[in-house]
Amino acid sequence: MSPLGRPVPQQEGDAPLVRLHEVGRRFGAVTALDGVSLDVRAGEVHCVLGENGAGKSTLIAMLAGMQQPDTGAIVVRGAPTAIRTPAVSRGLGIRVVYQHSMLVPTLSILENLMLGAGRRGGHRGGHRAALRRSELLLSQLRARGAFGPGPETLVGELGLGERQLLESELAFADQPSVLVLDEPTALLAAHEIDDLFSRITQHASDGGAVVCVTHKLDEVLRIADRVTVLRSGRVVDELDLRRDTGAHVSGESSEGERLRQRIVTSMFGAPPETLSHEPGSQPAHDTAPDPERPSQLTTRPALLRLTQVSTAAAVGRQPLVDFSLEVRQAEVLGIAGIDGHGQRDLARVIAGEIACESGQLVFDGAPVTKLSVAERQRLGIAYVTDDRLGEGTIASMSVEINAIAKQIGQQPFWRRGRLQRAAVRMHAQSLIEEADIRPDDPAVRAGTLSGGNLQKLLLARETMRAPRLLVCSQPTHGLDLHTTQRIRAELRRLAAFGTAVVVISQDLDELVQLSDRIVVMSSGQVSDELTSVDERSRDRIASRIAGVVA
Questions:
Q1: pLDDT digit of tens for each residue in the chain (550 aa)?
Q2: How are strands ordered across the β-sheet holding 366-367?
Q3: 326 HSE (CA, 13 A, CB side)
Q4: CATH class, 1-93+176-275 region
Q5: Partner residues linked to 234 by β-bridges
């Protein structure tokens, strides 16, 4: 038996369920994968790591039937196989849960589940059978306390973490031979991660294979049997943790630290201590203010004040309820809480995307409750959404068009109704260089960027306009260590130069590292506030959230 009490994965002499043999894939001049070989074995959790742009998304797309290799071969159960379409992938027993939601936002939870149930059951029993299967699946998810919204809730009203939970549940219900999870914990709270890991280990115990793409090294050490590290489209390291350690290890142990350093060095070509001192990428706490800073901030007037704000109730979405909050100039205010407790409405009501049912917003002493999104932007209010592809960008359009997406019709990019392409290209090139976006071609489609480069684009689009208030939702979810450090340092830099920064995050370590003050949200209201933040703050926040769960 393995350390977690599940069957020992296939031995090296056994044929893997899936083998990628020296696969390569190019997109024009960009090499996404270069001779990558990887085995996926039954009863095994196989984690794949790499910095943003290392080739992980292309590897997933090949297994899903979304892309095909230019060179090399994919072997399934010993036979060379062309996975030409997602339908072929499903027929082979491969199920993929993407980092970005693939659910239909205009359909309800139950309708989305029925789409999946229909695929699993074919025409057996028709609509009624699909309905019964869907209702059973949702009831099982709710019975575990892992999900709150009801069946009639529109998926578009869910937080991204709730969508992630729902898609994972759909995947497990398929009982696939190979389950591929792309950043499955990026938006989940601690108790939700525990529940997911229990499902993952049980799936492996039942003889399935799990491929988990993640950047969270502690989680890798917690669940992985084997690890493959990609860099610049190539395999640069492979670890058999079951063989090398004989057990899953804690990230805080000496063995865990040794493995962590090896993995980080393989991912970036430099040890962690070297990375942490690169310009623009130092950990946020290295640029954190001195101990006097919080007390200095409390003496400043509020730049933004929400007073007894309530938003419209909707099926399955938690509105704000008599919500009051102040945000001060030059502070980083962290917003904690289980996803779905009003954080999305908070971000959108500040940005002007949704209206207040009651209450008032005052910005720099003037009421802005009735102002439009564009009017608030002109005042210096900026918003970086957590839905990078669905809401933040137009995936089919170029990077340069996305760079000016919030300045449509404005000079110098438009003149007499005509797009000024030279000005747009110059602006986009400057943004790309400033944010280190790769590839550095303004003409590439935004949808082809890795998650990290897409986030750098969204953040740079807002910060280049020198906002007075910046709201960031899940700013580093699914990003590699280097990009995470860079973005956190940028948020602290903005605050140091006077911008008020609101960070909504499921990552408590991130909030503790970044924030001058932290507010915990529950049921659309403030349930706790930490006016000073230190290492003990994480336990207090976690306890408050755990109380909500209980």
A1: 444 444 445 555 578 999 999 999 998 888 999 999 999 999 999 999 998 889 999 999 999 999 999 999 999 999 999 999 999 999 999 999 998 889 999 999 888 888 866 555 544 556 777 778 778 888 887 777 667 788 888 898 888 888 888 899 889 988 999 999 999 998 888 888 998 999 999 999 999 999 999 988 989 999 999 999 999 999 999 999 887 766 566 666 788 888 989 999 999 887 655 554 333 333 344 444 444 455 556 667 899 999 999 999 876 678 999 999 999 999 999 999 988 899 999 999 999 999 999 999 999 999 999 999 999 999 999 999 999 988 999 999 999 999 999 998 999 999 989 999 999 999 999 999 999 998 899 999 999 888 889 999 999 999 999 999 999 999 999 888 888 999 999 999 999 999 999 999 999 999 999 999 999 999 999 999 999 998 889 888 988 886 655 4
A2: 323-328, 302-310, 358-363, 366-367
A3: 12
A4: alpha beta
A5: 231
Domain boundaries, the chain: 1-93+176-275, 104-168, 284-380+466-549
Largest CA distance in the chain: 72
Superfamily in which the 284-380+466-549 domain is placed by CATH: P-loop containing nucleotide triphosphate hydrolases (3.40.50.300)
- Assign 284 to helix, strand or coil: helix
CA angle 454, 456, 460 (to 5 degrees): 120
H/E run at residue 428: helix 421-435
Contacts of 295 (CB under 8 A, 6+ apart): none
